Amino acid sequence: MIERPMEQAVQAVDLADSSLAAAWRRFRKNVLAKVGGATVLLLLLMSLFAPFLAPYDHNTTRLQMTYVPPQKIYFIDEEGKFHLRPFTYALRPGLDPNTWMRIYEEDRSRRYPIYFFVKGAPYKLFGLISWDIHLFGTEEGGHIFLLGTDKAGRDLFSRIIYGGQVSMNVAIFGALASALIGSAIGAASGYYGGRFDMFVQRIIELLMSFPTLPLFMALSVAIPIEWPPLGVFAGIILIFTVGGWTVLARELRGKVLSFKEEEFVMAARALGAGDWRIIRRHILPNVVSHIIVVLTIAIPELILAEGALSFLGLGIQPPLVSWGVLLSDATKLETIDSYPWILIPGLVILITVLAFNFLGDGLRDAFDARLE
């Protein structure tokens, strides 16, 4: 029977309208998912270009500028004159006569314009390119502390930018390693079954019987204290990998058990395809959407875990800085009450976790709708 041209066109459109495109259309209808995705992309770009975006080196101390509150940016000076270029005023330190705490007053006689693409502390962009240009800054003698300073006079905005680079990398690499191991073990366990499956499932159940955060804490204690900061960084990623692959492995095992009896898998087996070729070419592509969703959900969990470990002194160690390390400065109520801007890293963690959760929920809904 010869098909009509219209029917042929409709079939061609149906073939071109792939499942991935359908999932993308559904994803675009989810406003929260798009907001989360845009926020995640912004955070990733900020982490990638952290040295360029940060006006100061994150470890530069200024003992005469400790606990400076967030500075105000002005466009109108004392005389009421408007300036196209924003500026800050000089800071004059003093003491509160009642509390004897250091306070800072603006010296309205000294104005420092804010410039873009200024020279500052040298750094290596992407760890390779030596450069000393920063996105913004002031001329010599002025300061721009958008989020204030900490107890050592270090710029909190710069430290949050650099801290995001460490926290995001730890979480992303830990999640990727966990996904890789969990996918391989889960797929093999579900496909081969038998004693191998039983052995793997008992190992997974053993690891899953431990609460996640205490397990991470116990493993982090095993990291030798003499290790350099980069060694601790790699050790934290390894800990997250060891404790994070089990959930994905268990879930993929169930999916592989259902897929391995499908007709396309049996046909590939009948044509002589090897086991790993079947897993790699026919089964894993059908579960890749689930792996992506699990990744977007695992990353914020690892960000929180890294923050908790570093807050307790068991995670990232100076001179590296992470969001958890920054929060460790807010351990006393007196400090929080007097210098509330020290809690800003916690707000950044909250925004990051919500963004990844919105993105993960949106991807899950999009792919689930495709599979219905």
What is the total tally of β strands?
4
The domain tally reads: 2
Quickly count the helices.
13
Could you state the CATH homologous superfamily of the largest domain?
Answer: MetI-like
What's the SSE pattern?
A: HHHHEEEEHHHHHHHHH
State Rg. Answer: 26 Å
Q: Determine and state the CATH class of the largest domain.
A: Mainly Alpha
Beta-strand content bin: 5-15%
Give a description of the structure.
By secondary structure, the chain is an alpha+beta fold. It folds into 2 domains: 32-50 and 160-371, Orthogonal Bundle (MetI-like fold); 71-144, no CATH class. It is 59% helix and 14% strand. The protein has 13 helices and 4 strands. It has helices at residues 5-16, 19-28, 31-48, 50-53, 156-192, 194-208, 212-221, 229-259, 263-270, 275-311, 323-327, 333-338, 344-371; strands at residues 74-76, 82-95, 102-125, 129-138. It has a 4-stranded antiparallel sheet. α3 (31-48) packs across α5, α3 crosses α13 (344-371) and α6 (194-208) crosses α8. Residues 1-17 have low confidence and may be disordered.
